[in-house]
UniProtKB/TrEMBL annotation:
Its EC number is 1.2.1.62. GO terms for molecular function: 4-formylbenzenesulfonate dehydrogenase activity; oxidoreductase activity, acting on the CH-OH group of donors, NAD or NADP as acceptor. CDD domains: SDR_c. This is 4-formylbenzenesulfonate dehydrogenase TsaC1/TsaC2. Belongs to the short-chain dehydrogenases/reductases (SDR) family. Keywords: Oxidoreductase. The keyword Chloroplast does not apply. InterPro entries: NAD(P)-bd_dom_sf, Sc_DH/Rdtase_CS, SDR_fam. It comes from Mycolicibacterium vanbaalenii (Mycobacterium vanbaalenii). The gene is tsaC1_1.
């Protein structure tokens, strides 16, 4: 996909990967709508793009809700035109351990249902036009797992699965899909995990920090933009994730046993 003149929505675009992606898309002459639950950060990110000569507007919106997604679509249509690219970036880590019913309701809404609701709105539009692009910001946890946090591990697996299904089902309709699965990225989300006092959460944080270099959000954004331009599905900013994934699939029981040993070692530190 050529990005020049395209209209993109980026959720969770006020900070972290979302902010970096919004800036990267604008640098490639896309016109960007930034959504975030934090109104100040959303408008600050849009203002920074404007200062750099790009085109961006912002809106406080909860991308986990149909109302929030519709509001972003309405803003995009009014300011720039029909949406070409939707970046489902907003995400949360959720509770450590198994979690409660309310914990599951929230993390499923943000990390999965937000993607489904966006696709419900935009896929029919893109089918009628013969083009469109959906970007799922998932996690290496969606290919591997996440020590300490069931909700995060499960919803990121689900996000990867939904992105796969979208690509299989609508790829022949001109709709591209990219699924981004990094390890550690220097974002407020990772800062929140680092600050956890729960032993399971601390072990999860250490597993992320020890698994590979912590990348800058701009590095993930650059890899993602390249994938959009190439219409490439799997985006691995940490290349070693592919070998980890292959190791998992080659002998599942051995991999689970290894993860248990690793978890015991983390909890002992």
């Amino acid at each position: 996909m050529e990005l020049d003149g395209k209209v993109a929505i980026v959720t969770g675009g006020g900070s972290g990967i979302g902010q970096a992606l919004a800036a990267a898309l604008a640098e490639h002459s896309a016109r960007v709508v930034i959504g975030d639950v934090d109104e100040h950060s959303a408008h600050a990110a849009a203002a920074a793009i404007g200062t750099a000569g790009g085109a961006a507007v912002a809106l406080q919106a909860d991308a986990a809700t149909t109302e929030g997604i519709n509001a972003l679509d309405t803003l995009a249509a009014g300011e720039f035109g029909p949406v070409d690219i939707y970046v489902a970036n907003a995400g949360i880590t959720g509770a450590s351990g198994i979690g409660t019913d309310s914990d599951w309701d929230r993390i499923l809404a943000v990390n999965l249902r937000a993607h489904v609701r966006a696709a419900e709105l935009f896929v029919p539009q893109w089918q009628s036009r013969g083009s469109g692009y959906f970007v799922s910001i998932a996690s290496a946890a969606g290919l591997l797992s996440q020590i300490g946090a069931a909700g995060y591990a499960v919803t990121k697996h689900a996000a990867v699965g939904f992105a796969e299904w979208l690509s299989i089902t609508y790829g022949d309709d001109g709709i591209g899909v990219s699924c981004v699965c990094p390890l550690g990225v220097d974002t407020p989300l990772l800062d929140g995990i680092r600050a956890e006092t729960d032993p399971g959460a601390r072990a999860g944080a250490q597993s992320i920090l020890q698994s590979g270099d912590v990348l800058a959000p701009s590095e993930v954004a650059s890899a993602t933009v390249d994938a959009i331009k190439d219409n490439r599905f799997l985006v691995l900013p940490h290349p070693q994730v592919l070998e980890m994934y292959r190791h998992k699939g080659s002998d599942y029981d051995r991999w689970i046993a290894g993860m248990r040993r690793y978890q015991r070692a983390l909890r002992a530190t």
